[in-house]
Amino acid sequence: MTSLTARTAVTPARSLGSRLRHHGRRLAVLLGLPAVLAALWWIVSERAGNFFFPPLSEILAEFGPTWFDGRLGHDLLPSLGRLAAGYALALLLGVALGVLIGTRPALRAFAEPVLEFFRAIPPPVMVPILMLFLGIGTTMKVVVIVSGAVWPVLLNTVEGVRGIDGLLHDTARVYRLRPLTRLRTVVLRGASPGIVTGARQALSIAIVLMVISEMFAANNGLGFSIVQFQRGFALPEMWTGIILLGLVGLLLSLIFRAVERAVLAWYRGQRQAQRGGSR
Amino acid sequence: MTTTTSTDELLSVRGLRKVYGSGPGATEAVRDLTFATRAGEMVCIVGPSGAGKTTLLRCIAGLLPPTSGEVTLDRHPVSGPPEGMAVVFQDYARSLFPWLTVAQNVDLPLREKGVARAERRRLVAESLDAVGLADVPNSYPWQLSGGMQQRVAIARAVAYEPRILLMDEPFAAVDAQTRADLEDLVRDLWHRLGITLLFVTHDIDEAIYLGQRVLVLSARPTVVLEDVTVDLPETRDQLTTRNDPRFHALRTHVHGLVQQAKRGEAARRAAA
């Protein structure tokens, strides 16, 4: 790890002033477009005079009272809890089945068409059906999230496992690595680029399904709140919910990216080395 | 033919035959190979390209089941990768785990063998030192040059303390200078560790420079054309050995055999 950073971060020492300027520029690039869009929203909504499109100033003023007086605990936390449970189950199930199918060519040929079919079904369609079987409780919502998020994980894991170089398997056999070591050190690490790709797709699907499952039937949650506000014509509050949802999505994707950077540091480095020509 | 008494015979290949596929599309890669090596011997295997050298090596390593015939190590038939055997593959970039550091790559097989931690640390440090990579244990393989990566693969094999080491054209993809260095490194390690070494190459000079014996294979379908004893002094040196008149004589002889193997192939094709 140390040599990795040593190789990528060969920036010469700089003065405090130029470092500050450098970070300032980065921050400006990062926040430039959001600031412009927010300003545009502010100005346009201020003059629109449309009941369904309230001024941004009003929305922001509502944000604190709407969410910080108990709703974070009452609605946001249950949503995040169901999301975490569903996402974790989808990852576990997808990786386990993906490894099983990916390591057995016969099973893969047999199962792949069926998997592609299930993947092609838009997950929200499953909500009414699952409601019939599981009611409208937490179980239903978690199962909805799993039923949609598991497919990209599963299929990308299968691809990742299949993409592991045969010579690495030969090496593992020659040095008589035990099955569990082979699974952990060869199969899961080797398939990790595929698993991460699947997990990224699954995360956005899981967030969508979290909201949708709450919109159908619930007594708390982010999706539930947004629908409640909309039905009660509490439009600024509804907009605050949408903004909060966006912020949650952004935060989760930032966390995901940090994890990805750590897990796939070797993969990024290897690809860079290959692009730069073998030394 | 070198006569090997059955008492100190380590590896034995008898009537080995390997056919890929079946029916009219089947290719016979190896027809009938029989040879044996004594413990502590360095045997090089040369042959024209496509002679089934890699097939032979994979059968010996237990990675590929032969169609018929038998491979035994210490009189035990080989049905899967046997204990006490290490392999260095030609493609170093694909045989090292890219998600493990150099030291972790060397350490992994030791960990699986159940070697104690302190002993592992010593073996990893010593083997990396022996191949001249003591300064990069925490680098990843892809941060190293091709020659260095192959050294990591050699260090991994050496740290494993095998009784028999198989090398499949290990230096085919490195530059000439690195290759000479690595040849001397392998010779040196073989001397110091007293292991049995089976070295597959298509380079006749390399085979004679390294080996005590050179097995010359025919073209596909493969048989042993001749078992050449290399009667050069034990201490070898890139300059003096390669300028030795005996080296030239052996080289001419083996070269002739390989040419004959290729012509045999051409004649068979013309007849078919």
UniProtKB/TrEMBL annotation, chain A:
It is found in: Cell membrane. Gene3D superfamilies: MetI-like. GO terms for cellular component: plasma membrane. GO terms for biological process: transmembrane transport. It is a multi-pass membrane protein. The keyword Hydrolase does not apply. Residues 76-260 form the ABC transmembrane type-1 domain. Keywords: Cell membrane, Membrane, Transmembrane, Transmembrane helix, Transport. CDD domains: TM_PBP2 (cd06261). Belongs to the binding-protein-dependent transport system permease family. This is ABC transporter permease subunit.
From TrEMBL, chain B:
InterPro entries: AAA+_ATPase (IPR003593), ABC_transporter-like_ATP-bd (IPR003439), ABC_transporter-like_CS (IPR017871), ABC_transporter_ATP-bind (IPR050166), P-loop_NTPase (IPR027417). CDD domains: ABC_NrtD_SsuB_transporters (cd03293). The keyword RNA-binding does not apply. One of its GO terms (molecular function) is ATP binding. Keywords: ATP-binding, Nucleotide-binding, Transport. Residues 11-244 form the ABC transporter domain. PANTHER family: ALIPHATIC SULFONATES IMPORT ATP-BINDING PROTEIN SSUB, TAURINE IMPORT ATP-BINDING PROTEIN-RELATED. This is ABC transporter ATP-binding protein. It comes from Streptomyces hainanensis. The lineage of its organism: Bacteria, Bacillati, Actinomycetota, Actinomycetes, Kitasatosporales.
